Amino acid sequence: MGRKWNNIKEKKASKDANTSRIYAKFGVEIYVAAKKGEPDPESNRALKVVLERAKTYNVPKAIIDRALEKARGSGDENYEEMRYEGFGPNGSMIIVDALTNNVNRTVADVRSAFNKNGGSMGVSGSVSYMFEETAVFGIEGKSVDEVMELLLEADVDVRDIVEEEGSVMVYAEPDQFHAVQEAFKQAGITEFVVAEISMLPQNYVTLPDEAQAQFEKLIDALEDLEDVQQVYHNVEFKD
């Protein structure tokens, strides 16, 4: 399962280099999640997941508060959740999740990013069947046995607990996100290397150097799009 964490880490490293863009995207995501229900994470589970992920990206409190205040007030922007699927070089697979107030613009931008960087868009379902929605937590300072024991004591079921790259990674069903989070909270663990619901591929592929360079340009082009929130793929990057 080490490849899963490597992929997440690579994604986070890429995003960390573009903090202002990432903060703006989190502002939209927090606003949309808050508008779906109450702008209170204790009663709005979707919002709680977004806020936990924002925390691992060090999103400033001011940006979070601004988005929540907008949702509480007169904010009336309407965003649609869109998912696009496609292929990169050598048949690599990509899922693109977006929040948009202009679907025509977004689909055109996503298609252009694929076409200009050696990829192609697929139809709905052409890629997602090869991915699994998964709750992912990464913590430091604990052993696998310690994490396993505290989750067992909390009667929380997870898919796997493994040590990867100096962190203990917990993979669980998406509907167990809050149960896992609460178990950690009760054990005094509130800081995570990663805490999110992700789309993880069932299998990873590696690409020849030239194809990998092209693939990385494609991923960068997609992540640079204003409406794109998340990009998932099945490529294991080589150093």
Automatic annotation (TrEMBL):
Domain of life: Bacteria
Residues annotated as domain TACO1/YebC-like N-terminal: 3-73
The keyword RNA-binding appears for this protein: no
An example molecular function term from Gene Ontology annotations: DNA binding
Location relative to the cell: Cytoplasm
Ranges for domain TACO1/YebC-like second and third: 79-235
Any Pfam family: Transcrip_reg
Keywords: Cytoplasm, DNA-binding, Transcription, Transcription regulation
Keyword Ligase set for record: no
Stated family: Belongs to the TACO1 family. YeeN subfamily.
Protein name (Swiss-Prot/TrEMBL): Probable transcriptional regulatory protein ACFQWB_15365
Species assigned in the record: Paenibacillus thermoaerophilus
